[in-house]
Design goal:
The chain is mainly alpha-helical. Helices cover 34% and strands 4% of the residues. The protein has 3 helices and 2 strands. It has a two-stranded parallel ribbon with strand order 1-2. The radius of gyration is 15 Å and the shape is globular. The termini are far apart.
Amino acid sequence: MWTSTKIINEANKLEVMIIPYPYGPSWDKQMERLVREIELKSAIWAWNIGDDLERRHLEKVKEVYGIIRKIDPNPHRPIMLDSYSNCSKEKGESRMG
């Protein structure tokens, strides 16, 4: 599934930096609740909100991004994702725009 609150809270105690993975496309209210339970301290280096995402995931990714920004007290913590190499490319559109 994703990085559990237990693991994240243990990393806080051990002062280990981690990147939690509340997976974007399957994000739901349960995951939002779990993220709210995390002790948001220095153990979280960044958030990874999706892997191998496609254009169809865009709205859900925006939603997850907004929720994390509201919950996380550190407004400068990176939020990252990964997408397929051609997911942003429309027919006839070049990679540069």
